[in-house]
Amino acid sequence: MAFIEIQNVSKSFRSGNTSRGVLKNVNLSVDEGEFVSIAGFTGSGKSTLLNMLGLLDKPDRGIYRLAGIETTELGEERRAKLRREQIGFVFQSFHLISRLSAQENIELPMLLEGVVPRERQRLAREVMERLSLADRAHHQPGQLSGGQRQRVAIARAIVMRPSLLLADEPTGNLDSHSGGEAMALLEELNRSGITLLMVTHDPSLGGRARRRIRMADGKITADASDDDARR
Amino acid sequence: MRAADLLHFSAQTLARQRSRGIMILCAMGLGVAAVLALTALGEGARGYVMNEFTSIGKNILVMMPGRKQTTGGMPPVTGSAARDITLEEAYLLPRRISAIEEAVPLIIGSARVSYNERGRQVTALGTTSVFLELRHLSLTLGNNLPAGDFRRAGGDAIIGEKLKQALFDARPALGEFIRIGDSRFRVVGVLGGRGDAMGMDLSDAVIIPVAAAQRLFNVSGLFRVMMSLRDGYAVADVKKRIEIAMQSFHQGELDVTIVSPDSMMATFDNILIAMTLAVGAIGAISLLVAGVLIMNVMLISVSQRTREIGLLKALGASSSDIMRVFLTEAMLMTGAGAFVGVVVGLLLVWSGRLAFPDIPFHTPLWALFTAVAVALLTGLAFSWLPARRASLLQPVDALQKP
């Protein structure tokens, strides 16, 4: 069975009296360890799809199975727990909490999980070591460069060893050098086994994914894979 | 989230938003301090009044003619044509009932007192030499009325300070003869201080032997008989025995009322406790005002931190986690405010005591605990809505907020 299984998922947003369909009968299945990029114009539904995959949003209709678990029927607490344990988010604008140090930001998911401080610190140092952030542990986000901030955010996303990493325009706020570094880091994580879904409108970035999905008007209009091409 | 982490996280947040914290701290602190100070004021007033009452004496019974079923208050001044309590009966009571140490008869009237051409209408009190001691009054000059059998009318008088001034100015009054009504009295003593008790201003009064007062006002009945009791007797028992004795004097009819200042004191005490509660409640209103402030500040905080809430949810915080984060913050601020309030309140009470040593200000313990409890509850209640609003934020919308 596929790691991510989406069947006939629909979602619409109401504004006033009119309701606008953002996702229309979307079907998608992603295997464990895949690297998928999702491209499309603003309003194509790509961000909504990502939020849905991250359990931040619920579909109006349809089924979403993550690692074999049917999530649409789950309660709030269970979904929160799944987010903590299975999913890491990387955002365009980093979303670091400015009053906390880099290390404290990285510890946040473990704080929510209730991991004891000693263990938290050990795991945070480990991941900071891996991402060459060890000397920035006690810096506030304001004292870090954009690239470093995104590395802290990525460290935070993977510190709980999730199986799914969701990235929303992860290089959108970075210069090309830092952006390239962040991208390389995400690819490296994907090679180590983590499933990576990335929303981007940048074709050069999207092109680095082995599977490229294109969305328009709430539907998946193209789904191309390097494996298909080879075949 | 672990409780310790929750506390640490909230403390970190508050440290970064000092003005917000200080505002709530001040509001709560003022509220708690107000409750403490106001109840201390009420308690001080109560203590003061109770002290005044105690000066009447503890082991004292007061008997008056007429019957009224009541625990306190004043007996009918007019009405019920009761039999008089005579001087003879007052004389006999301590001799019949060993529990009574002294019986002090009392007659009150108004008489014109004059010396040479100066005269003045004042209160004349007919009583015995024991009266002064019983009421904790003291003389500044001269002597008390002569002790001995109070059934004999003497010609001695004690005058109050104010009356002395009015009649004699600075001249010596002791030994001088004054005229009260139609009789001549010799001034033997001058009453010191205000000499004010039970609503009577004794500084503008004259005290004469009870038998002389009977003659002066041409009455046979007594206004009151005050009785001091020996230690070791139950007040209720003695009261019963006096009633039986009076019944035997009055051909089997019980037509006197005996009250103890203790029971009057109890009535007053209740009234004053109610007053303390009332002023305390007024103080508690300021706690509610502080609560509204908390709600506003927390609502602002929630809207300022919408992105953070979204992020925490994305990182796996559940709604109840978010709720706990905000409630903890509110409770930390409220708790600190309550603590500061207690310190400030107690300081206020302490300085009040320094400024007015006569009034025994003190905050009752129940008021302290109630104030702190109400403060914490208010903080919890009024931060509930903002915390709930935060917890219900949709993570997607929250994250996308600019």
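qc> Chain A touches chain B through 30 residues (CB under 8 Å).
qc> done
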